[in-house]
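User: Working on a comparison across species. This one is Enolase-phosphatase E1 from Urochloa decumbens. Can you predict its structure so I can line it up against the others?
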Amino acid sequence: MDGRRLRAAPASAASPPQLSSIQSVVLDIEGTTSPISFVTDVLFPYARDNVRKHLEATYGTDEIALLRAQVEQDLAEGLAGAVPVPPEEAGKDAVIDALVANVEAMIKADRKITSLKQLQGRIWRTGFEGQEIKGVVFDDVPPALEKWHASGIKTYIYSSGSREAQRLIFGNTTYGDLRKYLCGFFDTTVGTKREPRSYYEIWQSVGVDRPSQILFLTDVYQEATAAKAAGVEVLISIRPGNTPLPENHGFQTITTFAEILT
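Assistant: Here's the predicted structure for Enolase-phosphatase E1 from Urochloa decumbens:
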């Protein structure tokens, strides 16, 4: 068996991608490796419920300055939910009250912005380190990661969540530490997931000769379209609770990583 080849099991979607030359796999998290409910019902509420305590503990740091700058930008753009943050002279409590209100609005809107994702990642770190949270992945994910690793296929994560959050999730799963099977992590600092340029940047980073040697797995049609535009091969993940895909979307789909054969 060629240790650096993947192919998809037969699927119903038309025009399946040619996977015989895949050397790297890039995985989305929410709706692909992990249930959406883990993010919406566990991670997001934990961050929301602990944001005030975290901001009080980190007051005066660059993290506060980054959030303040984000709020100023949101106000300038007239975004709903953005409220002014008073100057330092107004006192710590007043500043934190305003920041909490803004962060809660960002979380509610599921904003994919670096300032929020970094904040959430640092809050989650407390939860993971205290074993209040365990990373949840679908049952078919660990054996697939192990098989790809053994076959010499390099696997990466690409998520709107911060790289720190990604490492926490995969380093503290109910199956143990899965980071030993992963070669790296990408977040919004490489670009948003709905822009083809982001996948071009990932291609430049993973060390393959052509974008078509990368397989990207996601549950989001717009992300799949962006990756395809960059020349990356794509499979769409169909999992319980995922948003339905448009009719005639044109992508091959899988319901389990076991459908991707080495």
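For your comparison, note: The chain has eight helices and eight strands.

User: Helpful, thanks.
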